[in-house]
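A common beginner's mistake is to predict each chain separately and then try to dock the pieces by hand. The better habit, illustrated here, is to supply every component at once so that their relative placement is modeled jointly.
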Amino acid sequence: MDLDLLVGALTAGSLYALVAMGFNILYRPTNVFNFAQGDLVMLGAMFGATFITLLGLPWFVGAALAMLAVAALALVEEKIAVAPVLNRSASSHGWVITTLAVSMILANLVGLGWGPDPIAVRPPAPLSTDTFELLGANVSSYQIAVMVITVALVLGVEAFYGTRSGKAVLAVAEDRDAALLRGINPNRLSSWSFFLGGGVAALTGVLAAPVLYASTGLGPSLLLKGFAAAAVGGIGNNRGALLAGYIIGIVEAVAAALLSPGYQLAATFAVMLVILLIRPHGLFGRAEARAV
Amino acid sequence: MGDAARALIRSPRTRPVLLFALALALYLAPFAVGTEYRLFIATQMAAYVLVAIGLNLLNGYGGQVSLGHGALVAIGAYTVALAMVDHQWSFWPAALLAMVAAAAVGAVMALPAFRLSTWYFALITLGFAEVVGGLLTEWRELTHGFAGVVGIPKPVVLGHTLTSFDLYWLALSLNILALVGMANLLRSRFGRALVAVRDNPVAATAAGVSLVRIKMMAFVTSAAMAGLAGALFAVQKTVVTPDDFTADFSIFFLLMVVLGGAGRLWGPVVGAVVFFLVPELLTALQSWRMLIYGVALLLLMLYAPHGLVGAIETGWKRLRTRLGLSNILPAPSLATARETVQPVAGAALSVRDVEKRFGGVAALAGVSLDVAAGATHAIVGPNGSGKTTLLNMISGFYPVDGGTILIDGRSVVGMAPHRIARGGVGRTFQTPRMLPQLSVLDNALLGAFPAERQGAAAAALCLPRARREQAASLGDALRYLDFVGLADRAMELAGELPHGQQRLAEIARALVGRPRLLLLDEPAAGLSLAELDRLGELIAAIGALGTTVVIVEHHLELVANICRSVTVLERGTVLASGTPAEVFSHEEVIAAYMGSHTSVGQAAS
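With all components supplied together, the output reads:
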């Protein structure tokens, strides 16, 4: 296989893994799968593009502001669309529709605010999207940076779950009421997780912008590909998401090369379905014993 | 005035008369107010209602969120378009093919849903919608690509080409058929099973419902209806392009169902009407349309989860209360209900060296017990000894890690729990698992699911055989509710019953299935003294009918009174086994319950 394609696939795969990680962070204490996640990533890209390209702020400042803005929005989403539904009944699935509704609202607000044209974003100096030769492939310093940052973030988040606060999050995911009785506040943890998940989504968007272009059409495709990465890797498992992201990136690249770019999503979906039918909890997920 | 209103509301003939008048008005409307434009809108709305009715079955009653129904409509529309334009098919076989194609794709879409949870399913259907949308454009050889399929002819019946009047009447008739069929289906065992799968899948499984088959039935039915609607869509618009079927299209149907009222029969109709009327009134806000829909969806789910019909129903109930009418329907009375309950041939249970490990913890480390047919046997032991685990393994809810379990000589190891339930094993749970939104009678009727043989089609068409089976089940349910003492509360909502009576209702549900082996998990928990006495009598009566009863209990007095034999478990192994007198004077048993520094004399005082 063409090594350049492989590099592109791994870069895209890293981004999908980051989207999946955003899902996982939100999912852990709430068992809610945020249908608006793709739009949060897209918003991060748009905010980042606005701050960095249109307003000319330095890259880190723009990125940080974008992360704050989207994290705040994610917090609002949790308060109005997730918490009320979860409080009504812990096993209800109404949040599927409410987060979907938030996705519709966000996507259309962005469309009305920014218009349909994509905004170009340049990577921060000294990185660039110019390619140089490395081990027989054409790769850019930015692509390397994206891959390295992704791996670092995954390891960092996994390390967090080993800490006391991280364990508290896992406790809430396991049994909300029991955690409550142990002095852990599930509502505050849920809010924090949405805040962090929103931040990670924004970072993903900002990182993706130089590669994928900041435009309003980004949301739905990232939702599906991020979900595919999360599902194949095992929901809640970030290392699995990383590997799954790479797999999906490669499947996409192969499909585009062998068939045509229009069949990418179909190929990705077919592969995901086959894997899920064989291992319903993903490659690295654990089946839960039923509580009867 | 109040009297007349009360009489009108109470009369059972009011509803059918009103509905008939409504249908008649709709059929005659084109002659009075029919313009081409209005007929076009009305026919399109009717097609949408068809999809929404199907989606309501899947989502409102079945609890599965599908974001892919737009793609199913697309498949129906394209099938009809391509068949009629490229292959000169007549409309009627093409429409049938459209239904089959959509149902087939629906079945494939549904496959992942069986092993995965609800929200996975929503995302997979969303993905399907995007994939189908993409394929409609990409697969140019089949679908004509961007340009779509043009020049779809109008349907022909016996040489007469259908006019827009005829198309409207066709669509209206299909709607009426769909509503009537849906009402019949929901009233039958499938409706109850579907609600059970949504609200309490464990209860459904224990009643012998195969979750996979019910979900598949719901999905295939709703997909076929979407395909049929797509066929109508195609011949009405005469042109189909990929642009007609964006991912947003699917969301319209979900919005209609949620707006009208998910899980309410008339919800889809009301939702479609409102959905169609509102844009007509808000043409100025066209570009804000999707945003408004998003906000509407959010507000509905937060404040009116049962939609407009749900809100109307609540208001109607309040009106009835104010007029002095009860909201509890009268219980149906059947001649057969007065027959007595029939005896049952109890099954023998044999458990040998059964093991169960959870990770590194051995919940059961080699447990053996035997229960003779028709006997009443108790399993007792301190908390954490593995009692409920054992029950779960006998009924198939937990897989067996080692050992054998034979019911009447047949091994049930590795059998799915609903299969075991259908084989004559009934059970109750530590916390009563009821369907709170259904009546006690409907909950009991759920237990009759495996006894009835009618298929979904027979139920929808209300065939005589289906009606006979339903009457028989109704008689059974009423009889067993009487047996447990809940006959006078049969029509109340199960969720409003106090704990002790929910427990009795659950036992009734298990009994309706005529189990040869009945497993009761801590039936006495949370009962008052009077209720305990009644429970003891009830269990003795069940045993007298011949059913083998196995009880997990903490109430040693109850156990001593009604059980022939007892097994004591501690930390996953059998501590003692025998008659209650033998077992409860056993040293180790007393030590396990009371600690080792107590003598028998102290324990008794």
